[in-house]
């Protein structure tokens, strides 16, 4: 008999019933980590995608053979590490889907529907404009063969110790020469020999030379470590037209080599600027004097910008490799939006990573504001004046060039900056609305709710449950108070409640052979009892008596079952109790019996 349509659809969409199966075309590298001891990098050889896994995530990856459901993986994780990680497992499966590491490819149905529904909103087009001019990319595959030819034809000699020493000397000499040459005369960035048209052409040529050298330095360094460079292309990043090469294959190498590849780009700019500065100093009358000046200025400026860690350029990747914190910028900005003000208002201590997030995120925001402001200032100070001179020129060829530059570059840049300012302002307003000053109208029970959630997060039973499930759990709990000597639960009775101690203390007692009860443990704030009988519907295995005025959070069995229906995550808690009861039954030691409650 066929299942009803909606039943089949429900089962098909149930992520907990999915049986993820890993692909076989995968390269794997095991690397040391200062945070986790080690980590793993997986490479999809077919799609050329990469993913970084912690040792625990890698353990789950090894179990994804198509025979285990997501729910089975959660249980296996608990049996291996002693904690529930439903959110972790679901996030890992989603990440592996997105990076094409599982045999069943994602359809992205909801993402497509969301994009379609938002197409007619102004917010959608603002984000689209920002993305096109600030993050758009046109990639070309198959460039590894060309890079290999360049490396074998002579690029490999650049990595010899003698060549590296010579480049270092050139860099030091060139810096002093550049300071003297640029100090002697004032040079106009947008004009050459009195002509703006020639100035723009030389500026564009200088930019192409610098970017080409920069990207070739990345590619040749990666090739020197035996890695592939599968693709390259053109992109806009923060309004800057750039070329790029894909050197993500270096992620399979240790940290030192990844930093070397990232450093090669800006270092090439320093070397190139130094060579031009030395030529300008030694031969001041060269015919190509003007283009050498522009290459020198842009090369050093490019090196400084690329080494700035607050933009996602080479300096940023050097920093995250040094700190061993992937996605540092995204995590820092999320920390500023969601957690910083709460921790400051509550005077809570900061972890090492939270300190890094706070400092880096603050500097990144300030740097972005200053960079946008400086860009607008330069645009008005130099570029607008240059465009005015060009547009008022009697030469129609010059006017045509001016109009082309205006339409192709300036207008999209201005619109994109405007979109960036609007979207950033909107994000800041939404973040400000979450500050404590706006919470004065919020009922006091919100703070109590937060305290309960924080308490539940500290318990091994709930440590890795998602925040929505914990919040729902805390909302269903009520407070009960017991006087000293009052029995809260008794051995043998049917359990109907789960208890968490918030104030006071209790004694856990188990019956002896003579019928008397012996105290086997004393519990205090933060401890819990009653979960075995509550979840598995078995008789109480111990008596719990209040030894002082005690406040307890209580969760009724009916409420818990309703919670399981709403949050499938909570249903997985039954596996905790099953395993825990089995362990208790395997030992007669009274100190273990006190946990049964």
The major pleated sheet works out as: 4 strands, antiparallel
Name the overall outline.
elongated
Strand tally, please? 14
Structural class: alpha+beta
Indicate the radius of gyration in whole angstroms. Answer: 32 Å
| Spatial strand order of the main sheet | 7-14-9-12
Roughly what fraction of the amino acids lie in strands? Answer: 5-15%
Question: What low-confidence regions span 5 or more consecutive residues with pLDDT below 50?
Answer: 437-445, 568-597
Question: How large is the count of helical segments?
Answer: 23
Layout: helices, strands, pairs:
Blueprint: H1 5-13, E1 26-33, E2 37-44, E3 49-53, H2 55-63, H3 70-81, H4 86-98, H5 109-118, H6 122-135, E4 137-141, H7 144-153, H8 161-184, H9 196-224, E5 231-237, E6 240-245, H10 255-282, H11 289-307, H12 314-323, H13 328-338, H14 340-346, H15 352-391, H16 396-432, H17 445-457, H18 467-475, E7 478-482, E8 487-489, E9 497-503, E10 506-511, E11 517-523, E12 528-529, H19 531-536, E13 543-546, E14 550-556, H20 557-566, H21 568-571, H22 573-585, H23 590-593
Antiparallel strand pairs: 1-2, 2-3, 4-5, 5-6, 7-14, 8-13, 9-12, 9-14, 10-11, 10-13
């Amino acid at each position: 008999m066929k299942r009803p349509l909606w039943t089949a659809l429900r089962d098909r969409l149930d992520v907990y019933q999915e049986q993820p199966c890993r692909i076989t075309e995968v390269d794997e590298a095991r690397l040391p980590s200062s945070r986790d001891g080690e980590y793993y990098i997986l490479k999809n050889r077919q799609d050329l995608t990469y993913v970084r896994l912690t040792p625990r995530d890698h353990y789950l990856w090894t179990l994804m053979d198509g025979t285990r459901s997501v729910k089975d993986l959660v249980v296996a994780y608990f049996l291996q590490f002693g904690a529930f990680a439903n959110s972790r497992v679901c996030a890992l499966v989603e990440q592996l889907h997105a990076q094409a590491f599982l045999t069943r490819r994602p359809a992205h149905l909801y993402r497509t529907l969301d994009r379609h529904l938002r197409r007619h909103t102004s917010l959608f087009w603002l984000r689209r404009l920002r993305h096109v001019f600030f993050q758009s990319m046109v990639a070309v595959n198959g460039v590894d063969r060309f890079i290999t030819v360049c490396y074998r034809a002579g690029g490999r000699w650049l990595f010899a110790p003698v060549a590296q020493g010579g480049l270092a000397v050139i860099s030091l000499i060139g810096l002093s020469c550049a300071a003297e040459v640029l100090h002697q005369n004032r040079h106009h960035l947008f004009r050459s020999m009195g002509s703006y048209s020639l100035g723009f052409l030389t500026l564009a040529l200088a930019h192409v030379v610098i970017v080409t050298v920069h990207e070739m330095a990345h590619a040749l360094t990666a090739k020197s470590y035996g890695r592939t460079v599968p693709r390259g292309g053109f992109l806009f990043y923060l309004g800057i037209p750039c070329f790029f090469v894909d050197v993500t294959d270096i992620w399979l190498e240790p940290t030192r080599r990844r930093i070397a590849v990232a450093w090669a780009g800006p270092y090439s700019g320093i070397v190139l600027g130094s060579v031009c500065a030395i030529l300008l100093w030694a031969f001041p009358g060269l015919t190509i004097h003007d283009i050498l000046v522009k290459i020198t200025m842009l090369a050093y400026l490019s090196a400084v910008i690329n080494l700035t860690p607050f933009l996602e350029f080479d300096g940023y990747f050097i920093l995250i490799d040094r700190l061993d914190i992937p996605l540092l910028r995204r995590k820092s900005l999320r920390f500023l939006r969601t957690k910083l003000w709460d921790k400051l208002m509550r005077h809570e201590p900061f972890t090492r990573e939270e300190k890094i997030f706070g400092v880096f995120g603050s500097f990144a925001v300030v740097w972005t504001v200053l960079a946008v402001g400086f860009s607008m200032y330069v645009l008005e100070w130099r570029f607008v004046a240059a465009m005015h001179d060009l547009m008022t020129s009697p030469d129609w060829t010059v006017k045509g060039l001016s109009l082309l530059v205006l339409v192709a570059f300036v207008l999209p840049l201005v619109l994109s900056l405007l979109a960036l300012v609007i979207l950033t302002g909107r994000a800041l307003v939404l973040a400000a609305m979450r500050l404590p000053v706006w919470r004065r109208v919020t009922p006091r029970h919100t703070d109590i709710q937060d305290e309960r959630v924080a308490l539940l997060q500290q318990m091994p039973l709930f440590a890795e449950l998602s925040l929505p499930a914990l919040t729902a759990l805390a909302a269903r709990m009520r407070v009960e108070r017991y006087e000293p000597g009052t029995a809260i639960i008794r051995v043998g009775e049917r359990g109907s409640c789960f208890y968490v101690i918030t104030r006071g203390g209790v004694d856990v007692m188990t019956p002896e052979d003579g019928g008397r009860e012996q105290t086997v443990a004393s519990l205090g704030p933060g401890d819990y009892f009653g979960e075995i009988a509550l979840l598995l519907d078995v008789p109480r295995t111990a008596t719990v008596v209040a030894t002082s005025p005690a406040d307890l959070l209580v969760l009724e069995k009916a409420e818990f079952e309703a919670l399981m229906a709403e949050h499938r995550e909570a249903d997985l808690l039954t596996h905790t109790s099953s395993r825990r009861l089995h362990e208790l039954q395997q030992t007669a030691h009274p100190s273990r019996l006190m946990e049964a409650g």
